[in-house]
Amino acid sequence: MSDLNNVTLMGRLVRDAEVRQTSSGKNCALFSLVVNRTKKENDQYVQTPHFFNLALFGSRSQGLLPYLKKGQLIVVEGHLEQRQWEKDGEKRSGTEIVVEEVHLAGYKKSETDNCAQTSSDGIQPQVSSDIPQAQTFAEDFEVVGNTTADNDSSNFFY
């Protein structure tokens, strides 16, 4: 029997995706996903957020960039990958999801905008700013596409 390493998640993007380039010149879209897990505690249902770092390689990374915006509901399929690197003489490691498929599942309706504008492609980008930020890992990508507002180059760990 061979090993199995498959991941399927549905959640919301924590921030806009950004495209960076690996040292070999390969494009990669980096983004984080929050998935809420509901469980019952003392006769109450409690939601616990879980954050995942994701990487999408290749030409699709640039093509999907306009749609991978904070608050976007997506379904991703991929596999887990563990990375190890050294920073400032200290060994570090982290696990991320390498995305093989992305499915846009809908938009989060903004609490402040009941009449959203529809773009020319028929998409209604209604996004909320109440999504918490995920902790990300350090890396040395060169930014080649959209970036986060703070342009933090310490995101992810390739």
Automatic annotation (TrEMBL):
GO cellular component terms attached to this protein's record: nucleoid
Keywords: DNA-binding
Origin: domain of life: Bacteria
Molecular function terms from GO: single-stranded DNA binding
A Gene Ontology biological process term: DNA replication
Protein biosynthesis listed as a keyword: no
Subunit structure: Homotetramer.
NCBIfam families in the cross-refs: ssb
Protein name in UniProt: Single-stranded DNA-binding protein
Species classification: Bacteria, Pseudomonadati, Spirochaetota, Spirochaetia, Spirochaetales
